[in-house]
Predict the structure.
Amino acid sequence: MKAIQNTLVLVLCLLMASPLLARELRSIEVDDTSIDLRVFGANGNKLLLGFPCDEGKSVAEEKTAQSLAEDGIEVWMPDMLSAYMLPDVKSSLDKIPVEAVVAVIDAAMKTNKQVYLIASGVDTDLILRGAAYWEQQNKPKLAGAILLFPRLFKSEPVPGQVPEYIDAVGKTRLPMVVLEGERTPNRWTINQLTTALGQGGSPVHAKLIPSVRGDFFKRQDASDSEDMATLQLDGLIKASLF
Amino acid sequence: MTRRIFLISLLLTFVSVIHASELQPYTASAATPALKLRDMNNKEHDLNQYKGQIVLVQFWATYCTPCRKEMPSMNKMMTKMGKTPFKILAVNMGETEDEVKTFVNEVKPAFTILMDPAGNSIADWRVFAAPSNFIIGPDGKIRYTLFGGVEWDSEELIAKLQALAK
């Protein structure tokens, strides 16, 4: 009886501990800065390097990362904002040194896995800059990048005028997949964006996610379709890893 | 101290948002694009038929929060423009009739909603975000543009638009 009881307690402990074991915290030192990294380890040969920049808030991303790891895709989530003590606003992106992004990529490449970059919204600027800088240094090839509803205009679009994209657009040869929400004005300019992204030599593929707005997995007022898409985010990402 | 800096930044952001939502004189030399679309009753509207009037052409979507917020002020604007010949053509950006109908029943716009299921006018008018607004003068030329939500029935805005008719 006592043995059964002990076994039950052990099983219960293991069940409770398993989600925690999947998420390992590491840090990477760049000059005098320590970049915290959430690592969802996996045995597969693909590594997804996400730049969510919001430690503690990215609930959906963490669940997705967990699910991808269970399917053999390792996920790293470096917290670049906290590392440089920056607030979660668009202008902070310019203050993250591209060398730090490259240092994180370097660490990921040392695993000898195929490394993919992923970011959403305005954060996609960071991975484009990082990838361009990486290529300039003739480093080994990255496998690709996933841009979730990228927001890459230099400034607010003026009606009637073709807006300029930020400088990082069209500066890399990295293969890319752009995922855009169907319920966003940006869906109408997706061809323009893919053309601009491809100007550096990148093969770019774009897909529309039906019935969702941009940032759908971060929204407080998510619709049923958006909740469903959030649950399927791991599948969408997996299908985008070429 | 940090709190004070944060509050000042917030205030500056707020001020810049207000500033951004102002009518901007249209300086490009390009001709006014064509706009020929059907309303929710399947009636065709051609921008050309409104020559001699001031027209607000707005590109909007039900999922766009500022669009939803400003529509009641557009209803009030219709009244406040008084005897000035004025028309609003609110072009929906590629949504289904069911999606738009639900919204219309809720907001009850007192102006014309045009449907553009294929999104052709969005490209023609170079619209990259919602809401995107164009003010067309009585001569059919674009006079102002405005990006973002705004209280359309403000005294200042009404006066600026009425001045176009003089």
